[in-house]
């Protein structure tokens, strides 16, 4: 599985954009995850960093964004200078850049798993499949004796995937085990190659397949994002765009901003074709949720509030919006108090 190293060159946008985005994960022993939550949240909030980081006894996973200096400081905090010590050193980390803030607020969450599969018999720290560098990926997936599986969910696959990849049709990652049981056979499928967004799901998926008796299991190191970062478009075997879990919605080659948007009613990613569909109504409904009246009613009200906020020149979502809402409440209270005193006089 070797390919000429010259086939790939870094195409990630240069850091002249105001926001730097960091996607990070690592399986590492963090029995003190609960105690680490507060100092991590305080560090990020003090530097205006926003996004979500998940801590669990098995490690860390998440994506955040901030100024380049803030993200560089966070990297040092996570990997060397902070309370994690050296436990997160060598984490799978990818950087990209954005012109607008891709997140609205900062969240640090404690969960049982950093990616939920509910397969307690596996341990990615002990056993995973064979990593395949992006430069070697094309040569592997073009082999006839390799079964290529997309481990992501159906709405992600719908935006883009690798040529010849099998779509498990899952709605969440825990269903992947059922797909394996029904569709893959270790006696027949001797070589299985898998990929996901950033690599983390494949850590668990490959560990799971090995626990089920599959002999040769491969996974794309760094996931689709790393592949799109370093692979020139003319050499790419990835078709479409890659869904990302932030306000960018999708990215393409070079990790440039994609064209997909989100339905605000059902949160399903929308292609340009979806937005031309007769069932698409901005902020209210899309072809994927047209029959859900309850979601449409809530979405319509949300859109109305967003339109009102826009007319005021205010922000509807995020920390800034919360601050503005608090300011408006205080102004109303002050006016009410003034009116009360005037009437009393």
From TrEMBL:
Q: Return the EC number.
A: 1.14.-.-
The biased composition feature labelled Basic and acidic residues covers 317-335
Task: Identify which top EC class this enzyme belongs to.
Answer: oxidoreductase
Q: Name one GO molecular function term.
A: oxidoreductase activity, acting on paired donors, with incorporation or reduction of molecular oxygen
Domain of life the protein comes from: Bacteria
Keywords from the UniProt entry: Oxidoreductase, tRNA processing
An example of a Gene Ontology BP annotation on this entry?
A: tRNA modification
Ranges for the region named Disordered are 308-345
Q: Domain Rhodanese spans what residues?
A: 142-236
Q: For this protein, what reaction is catalysed?
A: uridine(34) in tRNA + AH2 + O2 = 5-hydroxyuridine(34) in tRNA + A + H2O
Query: Which family does the UniProt entry place this protein in?
Result: Belongs to the TrhO family.
PANTHER family attached to this UniProt entry = RHODANESE-LIKE DOMAIN-CONTAINING PROTEIN 7-RELATED, THIOSULFATE SULFURTRANSFERASE/RHODANESE-LIKE DOMAIN-CONTAINING PROTEIN 2
> What does this protein's UniProt record list under function?
Catalyzes oxygen-dependent 5-hydroxyuridine (ho5U) modification at position 34 in tRNAs.
Q: What is this protein called?
A: tRNA uridine(34) hydroxylase
Q: Which gene encodes it?
A: trhO
